[in-house]
Structures are given as C-alpha cells and as structure tokens.
Amino acid sequence: MAAGVATWLPFARAAAVGWLPLAQQPLPPAPGVKATRGDEVLVVNVSGRRFETWKNTLDRYPDTLLGSSEKEFFYDADSGEYFFDRDPDMFRHVLNFYRTGRLHCPRQECIQAFDEELAFYGLVPELVGDCCLEEYRDRKKENAERLAEDEEAEQAGDGPSLPAGSSLRQQLWRAFENPHTSTAALVFYYVTGFFIAVSVIANVVETIPCRGPARRPPREQPCGERFPLAFFCMDTACVLIFTGEYLLRLFAAPSRCRFLRSVMSLIDVVAILPYYIGLLVPKNEDVSGAFVTLRVFRVFRIFKFSRHSQGLRILGYTLKSCASELGFLLFSLTMAIIIFATVMFYAEKGTNKTNFTSIPAAFWYTIVTMTTLGYGDMVPSTIAGKIFGSICSLSGVLVIALPVPVIVSNFSRIYHQNQRADKRRAQQKVRLARIRLAKSGTTNAFLQYKQNGGLEDSSSGEEQAPCVRNRSAFEQQHHHLLHCLEKTTCHEFTDELTFSEALGAVSLGGRTSRSTSVSSQPVGPGSLLSSCCPRRAKRRAIRLANSTASVSHGSMQELDTLAGLQRSPAPQSRSSLNAKPHDSLDLNCDSRDFVAAIISIPTPPANTPDESQPSSPGGGGSGASSTLRNSSLGTPCLLPETVKISSL
Amino acid sequence: MNRCPRRFRSPLGQAARSLYQLVTGSLSPDSVEDEFELSTVCHRPEGLEQLQEQTKFTRKELQVLYRGFKNECPSGIVNEENFKQIYSQFFPQGDSSTYATFLFNAFDTNHDGSVSFEDFVAGLSVILRGTTDDRLNWAFNLYDLNKDGCITKEEMLDIMKSIYDMMGKYTYPALREEAPREHVESFFQKMDRNKDGVVTIEEFIESCQKDENIMRSMQLFDNVI
Question: Where does the sequence pass through the membrane (chain B) (predicted)?
C-alpha cells in the first residue's frame, strides 16, 4: 500500500454511505477497534540526538527496521524511547525517507558509511531517489573498483611466505608472477627482458644495409645476409630462452587451459613459432618467400615487454576499457569515409588522368585528408571535387578529435588508480604487520597471565602478581576460554621460543637411556578417575617410573643452573613446594618449571624425572619435585592423588 | 571488462553480439544494475515476545543480544564465512575454521546455510540456560556430524582433530600426530558401553552424568551472559 493511503482510509469508509441504501444483504459488522489507537509520538534517540516522529510515519514502510517490530529490540523501557547507537547525521536522511518517501544521498559523506547505515535500517539501495541516484551509483562503482583492486593486490602480492607445503609448481608460478619475491626470480626476469631487447634489436639491425668492403662494387646488402650465421645464432639463443620460459610457465600454471588462452601466452607462441616453422620448411625459393613474411611476427616479441613494463600494461588496459567508445567512433569514421569517397569519386569522374580510379581508391584520399595528413599523391582537380575535399578535411578534424579525450581520461584514471594501488600495497603490509602484532599480543597476554601464576587458586591471591588483577572482564573471560581449551586437549599454549627450545631439548635428551627404575609407582585406575586422557596419564605414569634414574648429577646440575635463569620470580620457595598440597587440577605454570622440565625430558613429550630420585639432596629433590610438578603441566587431567604420590 | 548479462550459447552469436555492441558503442553496459539486483537480503527476526516465549532469556537479555548481533551482521544473518572469521578471532594461535564449521552446522538447525538471530538465540538458550541434559543433548548434536543419532569413531576423530587444530603449532608438550586419535580412543572407551563402535545418545548422556568432572565443569556456563 502506498504511503499516505492509511490517512484516507476513514474517508473511504465513510464514503460507503453511498452503498448503504442499495445493499441487498446486511452489510458486515465493523471490525472491533482496539482501544483508542490514536497516533502517538515516538522518540528515537540516536546517539543522544532525539528525533520525534509519529508512529504512523514509521509504519508506512513495514519491511524496514523502524517500521517493523524489530525496533522493539532497541526499546529502552526506562526512558521510553528507542535508542540506536548509530550516526545521527545519517539518521536524518533515513527518517526523511519515511516522511517524504524519497531517500536522498548525502554528498559529503562516504558512500560506504551511507551503505552501512542503509543496511542497518533495512533500506535497500534502490530506494535512493532519482535526484541522487546517478551520483550514488557513480560513487559506489568507483568504490567497488577500488575495493576490487585491493583484493587483487592482496591475492597477487600475497606476502613473502608461501604456505610451507606448496609444491614446486606453485612456487614457480609465484616466482613468475611476482619476480620480486626471490632473487632467482628477479634474475630470470631481467635475463628474459634482456633477451627480448636483444632479439628485437637483432631483428631491426638485420635489415640495415651493411657495406661489404671486400667487393669491388660496394654492394649494399642487409646485415642479415652478410652475417647470416651470427644472426642465426642470436636468434636461436633467444628462441631457446623464450621456449624454455614458455614451457616453464605452462608447467607452473595453476590452470593450464586458462593459461593457454591468455593473451600473453598467445603472444609468446606467436613470437617463437616463425623460428620453428623456418627450421622445418626446406630452403627452396618459392616457399621461403612466403615464409619470409612470417618473420614479421617476430616483432610481436616486443609485446612480451608488457610483462616487464607496468606502463605498457596500463596502456593495454586503457585501450581495452575504451573499447566501446573506440569501436563506435571507428564505425562512424568508416561511414564518413565511405560517404566522402563516393562523393569525391563521382565528382572527379569526368577528369581524365585522374587518380580517383574507383571508390576504394578514393578511400585513401579521404583518409589522408580527414586525418589532415595531406600527402598530395591524390588531389582533386575539379571545382566540385575541391569543395567536397575541403568539407572532407574540415569534418575530419572534428571526427578525429573526438576519441582523444575519452582515451586520455580513461588512461589518467587507470594510471592514478595504479599509483594508488602501489601505495595501498605498502599500507596493506603495515596493516598486516599490525594485525599480526595484535594477534601475538593476545597470545602473549595469555601466556604472561599464566606465567604470573594467574591460574593458581584465588586462595593464594596475595601472591599473584599485580598485573594479573588488572585484566578487563573481556580478557578474563577470553583467558578462561583458552584455559578450557588447554584442559580439553591436555596441551598448553606456549610461544615460539619455548616451543623451539622444547624441540631442541627433546633431541638433546633422547641420548639419555631409559633405565628401568626401581620404584614404579602404582598408578591404579582409581586414581585416574574419569579424566579426559586416562590412557595418556597411565602411560606417562609408566614413563615416570621408567625414566630418569638416568638423570645423573650432571643433568641435575643442568637443571639447577637452568632453574637459575628464570624469567619470573618464583612466588614460593623451592622447599615449600614439597609441603604445599597443590591440587593439580590447576596448571602450575611457573616458568622455571617450564624450563626445568624441558631439559629433563628424556623421551618426548612430557616425561618428568622420577620422583624417587634419591641422589640429590634437598635442592635436587625439590628440583625433582618441582620438575615433577610439571607432570601436571603435561597431564593436567591427573588428579591430586598421583601428584601427591610423587611429591612424597 | 564488464560483460553483458545475457550470454549467448554459441560463440558465433557471442561474436556477433560483441561486434554489434562495438559498433553501437554499448560494449560495456553498466554492471551496477547487477549489484542492485543482489542487494542485501535482510532478515528480520520474530518479535520480541515470541523469542521470549521460545527461549529462556529475559527481554533485556534478548535486546542486548540482538543489538550486538545486528551491529555485526546488519543483514540479520550470518553465513559460514563470517562465522568462521568471527570465531577465529578468539583463537589467534591455531586454526579454528573446521571447528567453526561444525559449530555453524550445529547452530543452523534448519540447514539453510545461514544462522539467523533466532537460531543463534535458540542455541544459546539451550547451552546457557538449559538443563544438564539439554546441554549434553546439544553437545551430542554437535558431535553427530551426519545427524544420524550416533557418533562413530570417524566423526569423533574429525571433531577431535578440529579441536586440536585450534591449539596451533606452539604447544607444550608438542602436539603429536596420534594425540587426537588417542583421545578418541579413550573417549570411546569411556562412553561406549556396549562396545559396538558407536556412541548413542543414551550411552552418551548416561556416561556423562556418571562423570563427576564433566558434571562439575558444567558450571563454566555461569555468568556467560
């Protein structure tokens, strides 16, 4: 229903008085009206600016946010108004749409911000009124082009590192597309460029006449015939390189069919085919005459430069984007040529010894005149011919001048876009680096939190580092989430440094032999309860038993020294570790435990030295138990019993 | 460049059309009309009262939830890509996309490829305000990838791998290849009563209710909203 129809409804219903006397049956009863639904004023508070409007106004468009029941989600019962946390300036336009039925586009605002507001309020962009529609679409198209470039640039310049598992093919393709990624690719790029230049120059020089000094009548001969072998060798070398490059590209292309159809590959093929055809064709006179013309295709090698030159590509792209204008102008030019040629032919028909022998012959005159070249090889001699000739040249000036601004404006637009794209690529790198930093920041925050003993019971709260307490609610909950994931998988998050240390230590510790230990702790199924990884815990307990009686004094010393290099000060003294009944449901993540446990791992991944290590006195013993506490690191699902056993 | 929206079947027809457009100067028609046709589909949720009835959230909670949801997804629906992106922000170290897919499929109850606000709120209501049985049911539904009523080892292995993927590379102890498989084995040992290789919903709920750890961990859903 149209916007204002609701207003006229009472009138239409009253007008039904005209039917009343004529009705043959009793008219149906009126629908029960809900208690006085008088129109009410709604207050819409957009970021502090209050807009007031009639409810009916908003109800005009029931498929938008404000017109439907969706606005109830934003109703604030305390203040009795609808609160939206959006831009109040943009909201003005949205509200005006309800009032007038026309959506206007603000000239000074960013078109994307406007689009987002429209999406939020449920208005489709088609609703933009005719007065603003053109501009809206233009700006949107410009924006879309810019975004498309961004994406292309992202995909193309994908950062210096490819995924590790990329095949040779992918690496090769990337090297071809972005020569700046590796030195080898760059070298290849410059070498091919050099050979293209050499080939083109050789083609050109081949035809220059060289004086042959040895002959008596200094016969002029093109250099190509004077030094056939040299030129042939150079040509062969160039063609070999081009062929190799083409085959490599074909091999590396992700989609070979698409590559075969692409323009650049066609140019490559056309550039090297004449040589091979020349090899195959025997050297008899008549065929090689026809073949010589094939050699003109060698000039296409110059187009291979477009891979090396950004400017050439821009030019090509410009011409492609102006194709429609150029096509139309070409067509109209053809029409004009035909008209004028016909006229000139018939005007000059009477003269004898005239150059205008036929209409196609007159084409040449028309073209030369219209482009204001005026060679003078064909001139009209009759008066009528001269009149029409002058009209022809005047109109030619106009017609030729038309396509130039189109091409120029397109070229400049594309050129500037390209420059912007380069700048944006640089910005993108900075942005990516910042994102990576933010990500690692989150991880580091979590690791820092763990290191500072934040995962301890809150009962030992006084010993927590102050930074632990200063986390926002969001951080707290996020860390809780990560903690839950750790508990689920029985692994912990670490940073790269610790991880590589662990890897290095594991290979180091593998040398120590596993000895059968005397004291094998009976880890019964009861003590494991229903942990999430009972088998792993059992196996670890067995390894516990089997392990490091072989940890000798030497390695204990290592442990001690390593324990000395701690990153964070241990909140508790080492001796108190034994006494303290820790419930190992909480991870104890003091960093020294990290470091100590790493070295003591004889077999991967989470073995700890046997707790029954009697050899070392207190420090070593608590060192053992402190490292044993790390068994809880790897086995957070072990229950208190197992740990208590080991801390005896 | 921009192509005309209609495509001719034969290349000859296409060539003729291109030539015609070249001559008449309409080779690159505006493709913005195409954009307009694909304008954003806006999904509007049911009324507040209906949602209040269907879920266990209060009016205010629903309002808060909707405002956040609408801010992120003005079109009213989340598709799988957005969902994966959103979820991956919480796990910067690992790759959470597989697990996000499973979650998405669990939330998307009508399997139409998008999660609307109703789906979202319905799922949250079960998880956060439901009984223990409800939550276990929901978890079972998450694990049962093909929704056939029982969890096989392959399904569980997929889920397990996706969870382990979220840990990323830098873990302590270092993640081994067999870690998920071992975890699955232990899970099945615990859950599969009749040792038939699959875990049905009754076995699942029964085993979980007997497991004190799991029951105790249910408290982690307090104060989420």
Answer: none
